[in-house]
Design a protein that fits this description.
With about 70 residues, the chain is mainly α. Helices cover about 40% and strands about 0% of the residues.
């Protein structure tokens, strides 16, 4: 049985009181590219998503290096 994706929960986010404590980077949908495009989302959706994802990843990496 194959699921569409997985949601990864984070103990550190839970300890900070963030609910739901979803760790965004490893929780990505395998079908995200099938849910975007003409008639579904804006033309710039994929580019905007990729920019936001990259910025989030850089911020998370900087946060980990600062510890």
């Amino acid at each position: 049985y194959i699921t569409e994706g997985q949601i990864i929960l984070s103990r550190p986010l839970h300890r900070k009181g963030i609910s739901p404590p979803i760790d965004v980077l490893p929780s990505l949908s395998r079908l995200k590219d099938k849910g975007i495009g003409p008639g579904k989302t804006r033309e710039d959706h994929a580019d905007t998503f990729n920019q936001l994802f990259a910025a989030y990843a850089r911020g998370k990496e900087a946060q980990e290096l600062a510890v």
